[in-house]
């Protein structure tokens, strides 16, 4: 009964709380969980069958010298052993299926959440948190489900053994029924102590590992400047500290470990003593004496399972809390309707458009709403311009003419970034598009038609071809080649062993800064948006390449609206319109040469690189 | 890309024996204590057997009391012995692990930087984190478990032998099947679990990078593509987990099914021997209980063997780092002056075509030389040759008449420094981050160095030079980190600086601030700058244009403009 993974439809998780979330993971697979409980119970009770059979073989076969009875009971031991082996294997398989179903389901809903929540995510959840959820929490939450199988089995097995003992001697049964849980209660806190002591050590160990990773990451710096000996000595000193801590942990742990053996051992001795006295007085038989010893020794298994299960539930709950927190992050509305529902739950099938949902409460625009803006909970976004239209940003006074190449030289790079965010509606924006307030157009439509290509846009792992194509898997190779040409990135492809089919790792770390930037540019061009806003697209490439890009970019975007934010004279020289942005406002527009002539501030800005370079080389 | 070496089996075995030999006394003590503890652990079943015999023979309550008390005593003795055995084993493990990790870091620090770059730092990073940790876990936890289990098994089976040799013989009935299936399992388990770990890490990486790139996902509408990508990873994790589950299914069921065989055989043979009065009933009962008792250590040993195998593989990778020949110490050459000269230098990266085709270049002491040219022309390669990081395949790079690679690496770094866009803030205090460049520098010199590069932020740090930097402590921005890197250079005080895209990875605002800091550092030194912005070239004493691995133009900015070559054309496109 293996689950079907990946789930075509992981379902909508219950986000009322961590335990609700775990319960949702159970509810998604009720029959498998039931099966797990049944098999777990059968296996756990089966564990006590062998001591019983051995005791019967001793009593009926060995003691009486009855060979037939002995052979019968021995055959039963073998058959029971095979059965137990089957049950044990099935238990492990079923529980693995349950855990894997839960893991895959959690991963699927987290994946959908991370993919759909969008630009707000980095502000709401640290990347480290996502790494913890993905690396640890999903597994831990799934492991809590182990309680549904052997956990249930442990309780049943415990009761069964109690009943069997009762049939031998009520007094013994009472001792065991009360004694075993109290042994568990004594041992449980010891286990917690053990884990606490370990966790301090582990943390220090993690820090030490981080240090050696740090040394590996900085090896090139050390090679450039020197100082290796110092680092070796410092690491060794830390390592010695950890060694001492390790001794301390070892001392504590070995006592705790010893206690977890001694307490059940002494209890077992007491039970043996009691039952041996009963055997002397004839209250129980010798075989029963052996059986009691076996039962009590067997009881250790369910008790351990329960302790372990409780522990897993505690850890699973903590893990589920973090998962729920991540899943509860909602995209904040930067003023205006989205055409996707506010809670981007997993219920959305990829590719389907959901009817517009009400915006989340408290999502009212913070800035001055443009006149005539639709009411906030309005279900229908205002119609966007049908075709290419001018963009206007009142905050800066910039007008972007449709179909033209506008290059904006901003005195302060922060102003350029803010401008791009307003034009792309990544922030509260009073920009208009063909006269329509951008904030009232459905966000989906803005994203589909206006692309802000950040200077540090993320590069995901995949082959170079996949990286370039992005969402457009259907794009043909001629367009890919054209985009590469326009971004002057053909040499990036040529330098890779398998060309476009070379896999790149996350952030394309194997490429140089300039190569990465050209890949980003090619990707943005290949997306062929109606409006393309490029932020500092050539800051890391050499002058030769930049000159080529300036020339080709113009041709590649001919007739389409393009905004470039840069102070590079090569790009400014190719613009249809240049705008000079100072203190957040457009202070001059015109051709590059014209502005160089009549706007001294502009001249200084464009030549400012000179000033620093002069300083640098003088 | 050639990876780092992995040690062969013989080397790993030698190293393992070395670990034991260096701490032989501790190992002997640990084994002896564990053996004693196990012997004490054998007493309760034997005492139970005795009780069975005595009760069957009609013994009184007093005998039972004495024997039951003895059981309690045996438990206490076993507890004490195993506690000290465990503690001694733990200390041994800790010492061995500490030595291993210190040696690993020592070896890592001695790796020639060229080797690390060719192998990719990812491999080394994995070895320093995953492999060192795996070896640590194996030495500290897994090996003791296996040692204890082996001692227990030997003694338990030995005890059955002592009760009766024939019983001992039949007790081994389950072992052949277990040995066979373990062999079968171990051959497949290692690679299968490694594959499982790798695909699980890929899934985590997909989730993390989707979160990191959330804005890009929204901008380029990559949500469906990301979901598709992640779903494919989920499918791969599941496929890998099913494989390991299939292995466990076979392994567990055969092992578990083997457990009742020896008990059954023992009871049958016991019955025969009992009929002939060769053993007592108590002996058979004790032997049966010993076998029950042996199941636990046997399972434990089997479960951890796979981990031990993985530890062995990791150990081979950890030791492999030590097999890279360290950087040659150099021939104590003494340069007569600071003049850098390149003659007929050709260079190719491993297995590739030549990147540089016979470069000749004289760098005059104290001059500013700008290196310009299109991407892939070989600018960075030339910079690395000048810094002595790589050796030319043909030709020579010398400083003051000595080949740069003949200098002692430490000496070379004191003379010529390569500044790249890579900067790294080490975990530790600000002082730690500066001190390694000049170990004897006073606090005042450090303050001065920071002030020189414009790192005025250091004055605002809560604990000054003792402020902890890095992950989880005070985080430096990109520009601050780059300033820190430059302050190190001020302290190291090299006579020649090679700048390779030192500010290219920074955003333009940051780049400007950093360039100002750079200016302070450059005063009074020979500077070779790989220039992206032609402004830089304009202000240099000389400009070298590198195209297709050759220097095609060399001269001052004005000379090159007059010459009307490619440089002039480029310059005019900048300044219409």
The average pLDDT score of chain B comes to 86
- Computed over alpha carbons, the radius of gyration of chain B is 35 Å
Protein structure class of chain B: alpha/beta
Amount of beta strand of chain A:
5-15%
Query: What value does the Rg of chain A take, in angstroms?
Result: 35 Å
Question: Helical proportion of chain B?
Answer: 55-70%
* Spatial ordering of strands, largest sheet of chain B: 6-9-10-3-11-12
What structural class should be given to the helix and strand makeup of chain A? alpha/beta
Specify the oligomeric state.
Answer: heterodimer
Q: How many beta-strand segments of chain A?
A: 12
Q: Which spans of chain B of ≥5 residues are poorly predicted at pLDDT below 50?
A: none
Give short descriptive properties of this protein.
heterodimer, A: 618 residues, alpha/beta, four-stranded antiparallel sheet, 12 strands, elongated, B: 576 residues, six-stranded mixed sheet, 65% helix
Describe the overall structure:
Chain A has 618 residues and is of the alpha/beta class. Chain A has 22 helices and twelve strands. Chain A has helices at 18-27, 30-46, 49-62, 67-117, 121-124, 127-143, 150-168, 170-217, 219-225, 228-281, 286-327, 413-423, 443-449, 464-469, 477-486, 490-495, 513-526, 543-556, 569-572, 592-598, 600-606, 608-617, and strands spanning 391-393, 398-400, 405-410, 432-433, 436-437, 450-453, 462-463, 503-504, 531-535, 561-565, 577-582, 585-590. In chain A, the strands form three sheets. Chain A has a six-stranded mixed β-sheet, with helices on both faces. Chain A has a four-stranded antiparallel β-sheet with strand order 2-1-4-5, covered by helices on one side. In chain A, strand 11 (577-582) and strand 12 (585-590) form a beta hairpin. The termini of chain A are far apart. In chain A, 50% of the residues are buried. Chain B is an alpha/beta fold and 576 residues long. Chain B is 65% helix and 11% strand. Chain B is built from 20 helices and twelve strands. Chain B has helices at residues 9-21, 24-56, 61-109, 113-119, 121-163, 165-171, 175-212, 214-219, 223-258, 260-275, 281-321, 379-387, 409-415, 430-435, 443-452, 478-492, 508-522, 534-539, 557-563, 566-574; strands at 340-348, 354-363, 368-372, 394-399, 402-403, 416-419, 428-429, 468-469, 496-500, 526-530, 542-547, 550-555. In chain B, the strands form three sheets. Chain B has a six-stranded mixed β-sheet, sandwiched between helices. Chain B has a four-stranded antiparallel β-sheet with strand order 2-1-4-5, covered by helices on one side. In chain B, helix 2 packs antiparallel against helix 11 (281-321). Classes of the chains: A alpha/beta (618), B alpha/beta (576).
